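Entry 12.
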Amino acid sequence: MDPTIKRLLDESAIRDCMACYARGIDRMDRSLILGAYWEDGYDRHAHFGGTPAEFTDWVMDLLAGDSASSHLLGQSLIRFEGKQAAVETYYFARHVRTDDGVEKVLLANGRYADLFEERAGEWRILEREVIVDWGQIVPMGERQSDDLLLDMRAKGQRSPDDFSSSLLGGVLDRPATQ
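Predicted 3D structure (tokens):
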């Protein structure tokens, strides 16, 4: 295969892995989170450090009380060295939660500093360091009225009941093919 085509396919696979990870966090989907990492990987995330399975348990517990979350991924800088890639991806995360009876939004901006590794043609995270560039917690402002939502059945859910899970007969739940 042409090396330029191979590099473009590898970059696409890495970005797809990142998108599946973000979707897994926002939809509370354990299998998508775990599928972004190699089993022998390691994640350093806020006050946590451990294996992908330990991270998944920790983050699912941490976010269980949130009523909503959204991770927007920005640009990725990807540098290959053989079967590994150093990847820096910007993120903007929002979590809606209630503390002491007050609904608040946790906002965080930062970067995922990842070491990806290709095994048997598949790219996954081997090591991750989460860098927080800034963060803040603010009270939730006045919510928009439900009557402004055009289609209530498509309102986001933090579970497999989310509309996107049924999109195209579950195509989002299947691994990407090249």
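Annotation: Strands lie at 37-45, 48-50, 68-81, 84-99, 102-119, 122-139. The CA atoms of residues 91 and 169 lie 29 Å apart.
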